[in-house]
Specification:
Belongs to the zinc-containing alcohol dehydrogenase family. By secondary structure, the protein is an alpha/beta fold. The chain contains 13 helices and 15 strands. Helices cover 29% and strands 25% of the residues. The protein binds zinc ion (2 copies).
Length: 348
């Protein structure tokens, strides 16, 4: 089979590899569509992981083989694949911090080498722990593989929306209207709150409005806090979701979020970046700072419901489709987006 192997920083190599062989409790999935995630791009561009590895984790495909002990799954079934499933019994899991669980972090789907998602390959192997514990999600007949590839990123965004306790009637500022910011706009609206978005690209500001933002502004607008206060009866927004790794966006969030509000870090910042915070902003204004990383097992069926019942329009997020051999070009486009670049999907 063909796979895109990470051979070092910025070195993707399109290689012929053996199809993974199955243990009796494992399942093999032929990858039809895999989403290109910002986290994949970071793993490719920065020295975060020892090579060789095969990344890609927003996977939808067809079961092509099942181990002898696997029950309930057949060759030919269409599935969305979760690359991590928590153990459900460690101290993190018992406190609903599933993404901190060692099992969650260490057991993953793989197409070869150290397990790292493996979606950037023609076939990916799903370990027994993930097969047994709900990591394969059947795709309804009327839903495309493209749509199904959004179950994982929807879960990640949904987890942040839930963590920030976004409620009907609230107003939420979303900094950054790329694929993640746009999905936040859709989810915030679905849960009955109003979304205000910012971005640097005029096309993304327009796109934010077209997917349901109440208002959208240029992030460089010096009057942004005043405009936000005008839209919120002088209060400021209830929640800001930081979907760009920018300290400027964080300081804007402090100016735009109401007393008692929340600021949630969703984008991963460069490790060397430090942000000075006056603790009295947190004390006197009772602003809660929080972070949300990866997905939550608890809301997996809700994420699937949202995608499979088209409660948000994930197709509106898709801008580009690449063949697996052209993954490097896809990464280049994601790093330097054109005016019309949103979600990029890869076709192994
Ligand atoms: Zn992802
Ligand atoms: Zn656990």
């Amino acid at each position: 089979m063909k796979a895109q192997v990470f051979r070092g920083v910025n070195q993707l190599s399109y290689e012929e590899l053996p199809v993974p062989t199955l243990e009796p409790d494992e399942v093999l999935v032929q990858v039809q569509v895999v989403g290109l995630c910002q986290s994949d791009i970071k793993k490719i561009r920065y020295p975060l992981y020892e090579p060789p590895r095969i990344f890609g984790h927003e996977t939808a495909g067809t079961i092509s083989a099942v181990g002898s002990q696997v029950t309930g799954w057949q060759v030919g079934q269409r599935v969305a694949v979760m690359h991590h499933i928590p153990c459900m019994r460690c101290d993190y899991c018992l406190n609903d911090n599933f993404s901190m669980c060692d099992t969650y972090k260490n057991i993953s789907t793989t197409a070869g080498f150290n397990a790292s998602g493996g979606g950037f390959a023609e076939y990916v192997k799903v370990p027994g722990h993930i097969v047994r514990n709900g990591g394969l999600i059947p795709i309804p007949d009327n839903i495309s593989f493209e749509e199904a590839s959004f179950v994982e990123p929807t879960n990640c965004c949904l987890k942040a929306v839930k963590k920030a306790q976004i409620a009907p009637g609230q107003t939420v500022l979303i900094t950054g209207a790329g694929p993640i910011g746009l999905m936040f706009i859709m989810l915030v609206k679905y849960f009955g709150a109003k979304a205000i978005a910012t971005d640097l690209l005029p096309s993304r500001i327009e796109k934010a409005l077209s997917v349901g933002a109440e208002a959208a502004f240029d992030a460089r607008d010096a009057n942004l806090p005043a405009k936000i206060h005008d839209l919120t009866n002088g209060m400021g927004v209830d929640v800001t979701l930081l979907a760009v790794p920018s300290d400027k966006a964080f300081f804007q969030a402090l100016d735009c979020t109401r007393k008692g509000g929340k600021i949630l870090f969703f984008a991963e910042f460069p490790d060397e970046m430090e942000i000075p915070v006056n603790p009295n902003l947190l004390y006197r204004r009772e602003i809660d700072l929080m972070g949300s990383y990866s997905s939550s097992y608890r809301i997996q069926s809700l994420a699937a419901d949202i995608v499979f019942n088209r409660r948000i329009d994930v197709q509106a997020l898709i801008s580009d489709r690449y063949r697996l051999q052209d993954l490097s070009a896809a990464v280049e486009q994601a790093i330097a987006p054109t005016a019309e670049t949103y979600k990029i999907l890869i076709y192994p």
